[in-house]
């Protein structure tokens, strides 16, 4: 199961980054796209709600959204480049209070 240590020591939209590495998508509990396959897990820490999804079914998270208790959020997509390099790309960010 994914743990907060897999994401970062204290998950927050400003602290997760491109070099976080692959995250195992264990403990999936929700079928968000309705195809009959569990693909998403949600968990809370003291500072954030974290949503991880394995949209391609390979066992690794390829989408992650962090929503901080202060309303800041960031969404990330995982990419593996042709040379094997792994990286997360931030695809959205903002503040729910604005």
> What does the main sheet amount to?
5 strands, antiparallel
**What is the strand tally?**
5
Q: Report how far apart the termini are.
A: 33 Å
The sequence of SSEs as H and E is: HEEEEE
Strand order of the largest sheet: 1-2-3-4-5
Rg, Å, rounded: 13 Å
Low-pLDDT runs: none
Shape: globular
Helix content: under 10%
Could you describe the 3D structure shown?
- The protein has 1 helix and 5 strands; from the N terminus they run αβββββ.
- It is mainly beta.
- The chain has a 5-stranded antiparallel sheet with strand order 1-2-3-4-5, with no helix packed on it.
- A hairpin with a 3-residue loop joins strand 3 and strand 4 (72-80).
- The model has no long low-confidence stretch (mean pLDDT 80).
Condensed summary:
It contains 1 helix and 5 strands; from the N terminus they run αβββββ.
What's the topology here?
Layout: H1 4-7, E1 40-44, E2 48-53, E3 63-68, E4 72-80, E5 86-95
Antiparallel strand pairs: 1-2, 2-3, 3-4, 4-5
For the structure shown, list the relevant keywords:
single chain, 98 residues, mainly beta, five-stranded antiparallel beta sheet, 5 strands, 4% helix
């Amino acid at each position: 199961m994914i743990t907060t240590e897999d994401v970062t020591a204290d998950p927050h939209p400003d602290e997760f980054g491109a070099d976080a590495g692959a995250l195992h998508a264990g403990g999936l509990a929700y079928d968000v796209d309705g195809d009959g396959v569990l693909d998403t897990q949600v968990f809370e820490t003291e500072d954030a709600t974290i949503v991880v999804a394995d949209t391609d079914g390979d066992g690794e998270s390829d989408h992650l959204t962090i929503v901080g208790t202060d309303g800041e959020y960031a969404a990330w997509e995982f990419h593996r480049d042709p040379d094997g390099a792994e990286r997360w790309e931030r695809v959205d960010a903002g503040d729910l209070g604005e």
